[in-house]
Amino acid sequence: MKHTTNGSLMTDIILETFKLNGLLVLEGDLLINDLGLTSARWKVLGALSNGPGPMTVSDIARMMGQSRQAVQRLSNEMIQAGLLETQPNPKHQRAKLMKLTGKGKRAYEQAMQKQIPWVNSIAENFKEKELKLVSSLLEKLISQLDS
Amino acid sequence: MKHTTNGSLMTDIILETFKLNGLLVLEGDLLINDLGLTSARWKVLGALSNGPGPMTVSDIARMMGQSRQAVQRLSNEMIQAGLLETQPNPKHQRAKLMKLTGKGKRAYEQAMQKQIPWVNSIAENFKEKELKLVSSLLEKLISQLDS
DNA sequence: TATAAAATGACAACATGTTGACACTATATA
DNA sequence: TATATAGTGTCAACATGTTGTCATTTTATA
């Protein structure tokens, strides 16, 4: 059995995704390491910042597409670091709600102030139409795999 | 400072790349775990299969865009597992050349026999033109970051 | 209501990746 | 040729992710 034309192109995209992911994590860490953040913590801050409000660890994990255990460990560390705090969850006795502290909010804002010029500069070499197409194709691919 | 239109779209693409990477690794592991392979080992087999011939660990690492130490550990394990073997390197006394064993070749072929129908099926929901555009944009993005 | 099923936090084991440091080898250059 | 520079294997520490298991809590259902 052989790759179809599309299958071969999709294989290229998959390998590119692996490589790009590694590069992006490295760049992200580099961008914000002076803020006491890492790419992993940044993603948690982002989930809480862009989410509907305080969320449980499991909510955050589902939003990020990661295991709740991974997010749990990060969250615990981030509470120790003063970036997150818990508040009681009326819906669940054990699953406390996570929210950003003032320090967490400031860290996220500072991170975004670094990310914005960085990403704007990278993105200016592309056409808006192309970026839209890529984003929507990746989204479609994710929802196909995320079953 | 704010995101430009392109910067905002590129940020979406970055977050999608994180999520897609995780899903792809999981799917890959699932696809081939009955062959005694993992996504990580598969990538090494792929590098050697698609490369110009026997390569050093450092060569493979550069090709995969990963640290040589990570590839070294995988390679050592894969030699133990009989998937790879070394041969002397006339160019370098310590940096031996890595090549696939018969078992390694068969494992890679079996993996591809699983990957091909899987990726063909996923890819048939997309247009060739779009896939080409996505692949080339990702490639361009990688080369921008890979400095 | 009683009980089965699902969700959650905690802990452990493991896989995969990074970086740093060290000794050794190969290569470029003064 | 002598020496600085770069590449390489090895080892260690660590970050980030997975899965499995267990006890507990919540939710769904018979």
Topology:
2 copies of one chain form a homodimer.
Chain A: H1 5-32, H2 39-50, H3 57-64, H4 68-80, E1 84-87, E2 97-100, H5 102-123, H6 128-145
Antiparallel strand pairs in A: 1-2
Helix pairs in contact in A: 2-5, 3-4
Chain A binds a DNA duplex (30 and 30 nucleotides) through residues 22, 25-26, 29, 38-40, 56-58, 66-70, 72-74, 91-96.
Q: How many domain units of chain A? A: 1
Please identify the structural class of chain A as seen in this structure: mainly alpha
Helix fraction of chain A by DSSP (H/I, runs of at least 4): 55-70%
**H/E topology pattern of chain A:** HHHHEEHH
Number of strands of chain A: 2
CATH class of chain A: Mainly Alpha
Number of helices of chain A: 6
CATH fold description of chain A: Arc Repressor Mutant, subunit A
Strand content of chain A: 5-15%
Please identify the oligomeric state.
Answer: homodimer
Major pleated sheet of chain A: 2 strands, antiparallel
Cα separation of the termini of chain A: 26 Å
Tell me the greatest interface. A-B, 57 and 57 residues
Organism (chains A, B): Aliikangiella coralliicola
Protein name (chains A, B): MarR family transcriptional regulator
GO molecular function, one term (chains A, B): DNA-binding transcription factor activity
GO biological process, one term (chains A, B): response to stress
Task: Please tell me about this protein's structure.
The structure is a homodimer of 147-residue chains. The first copy, chain A, is mainly α and 147 residues long. The first copy, chain A, has one domain (25-145): Arc Repressor Mutant, subunit A. Chain A contains six helices and two strands, in the order ααααββαα. The first copy, chain A, has a two-stranded antiparallel sheet. The longest helix of chain A has 28 residues, at 5-32. The two termini of chain A are 26 Å apart. The first copy, chain A, binds a DNA duplex (30 and 30 nucleotides) through residues 22, 25-26, 29, 38-40, 56-58, 66-70, 72-74, 91-96. Chains A, B: InterPro entries: HTH_MarR-typ, MarR/SlyA-like, WH-like_DNA-bd_sf, WH_DNA-bd_sf.
